[in-house]
């Protein structure tokens, strides 16, 4: 079965009829990294809910053996707005992908200590692809270009449940806060960089309808906080799914 095979993401346009056409990088990965030979099989995902069992041919192609039914997008939809930390954002991308995040919006905020580098977005997308292959996700997360934190907070859909994670404040803990909310399918979580959000950013977010919450009494690193928050969100969503 495809789920027992090593996975390879390929964009939908590379599917031509009953075969996937490989580019040189993909061919190298299959033959040199995975050590596949002609006749060996792997699983192909297109990042849009599709899953295929495919067999490596003699040339630059994978022949479709079986196509699984397309899976609908998972629920809930999780958006992570993350202030860029000085180090470790690659691992945030990787772990957030494993935890089922839908969209990752990296931001530069008032307390950020790094510069925006547009070229990093392509690398982060590659990391998300690798994490999706490893974690057997069928949908790739959307990695948005870096933008200003204030803009991302102001322009997040008001239809989403929105929480702003803060430290050193007496606030509702995220877990019971989520459990107390009516049924939700869209959740946006905003995590600041080292030093957190500025007072001005906090005021703006609250005025825009964001709810300030706590991740506990410990002061978490900027790269730890998003993983904790996403884990709690998925735990609440899974519990509600079982209850239904």
Automatic annotation (TrEMBL):
GO terms for biological process: rRNA base methylation. The keyword Transferase applies. Residues 22-65 form the Ribosomal RNA small subunit methyltransferase E PUA-like domain. Pfam families: Methyltrans_RNA, PUA_4. It comes from the Bacteria. Its main location: cytoplasm. It catalyses: uridine(1498) in 16S rRNA + S-adenosyl-L-methionine = N(3)-methyluridine(1498) in 16S rRNA + S-adenosyl-L-homocysteine + H(+). Residues 75-234 form the Ribosomal RNA small subunit methyltransferase E methyltransferase domain. Its EC number is 2.1.1.193. This is Ribosomal RNA small subunit methyltransferase E. It comes from Synechococcus elongatus PCC 11801.
């Amino acid at each position: 079965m495809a789920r027992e095979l090593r996975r390879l993401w390929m964009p939908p346009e590379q599917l031509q009829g009953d075969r996937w056409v490989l580019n040189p990088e993909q061919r190298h990965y299959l033959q040199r990294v995975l050590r596949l030979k002609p006749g060996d099989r792997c699983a192909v995902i297109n990042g849009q809910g599709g899953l295929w069992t495919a067999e490596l041919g003699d040339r630059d192609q994978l022949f479709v053996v079986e196509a699984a039914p397309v899976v609908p997008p998972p629920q809930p939809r999780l958006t992570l707005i993350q202030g860029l930390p000085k180090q470790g954002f690659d691992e945030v991308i990787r772990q957030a992908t494993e935890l089922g995040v839908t969209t990752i919006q990296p931001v530069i905020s008032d307390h950020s200590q790094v510069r925006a580098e547009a070229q990093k977005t392509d690398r982060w997308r590659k990391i998300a692809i690798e994490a999706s292959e490893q974690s057997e996700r069928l949908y790739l997360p959307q990695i948005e270009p870096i933008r200003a934190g204030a803009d991302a907070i102001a322009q997040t859909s008001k239809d989403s449940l929105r929480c702003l994670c803060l430290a050193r404040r007496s606030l509702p803990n995220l877990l019971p806060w989520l459990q107390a909310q009516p049924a939700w399918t869209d959740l946006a979580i905003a995590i600041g960089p080292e030093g957190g959000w500025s007072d001005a950013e906090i005021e703006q977010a609250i005025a825009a309808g964001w709810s300030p919450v706590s991740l506990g009494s410990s002061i978490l690193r900027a790269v730890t906080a998003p993983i904790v928050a996403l884990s709690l969100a998925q735990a609440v969503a899974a519990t509600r799914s079982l209850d239904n």
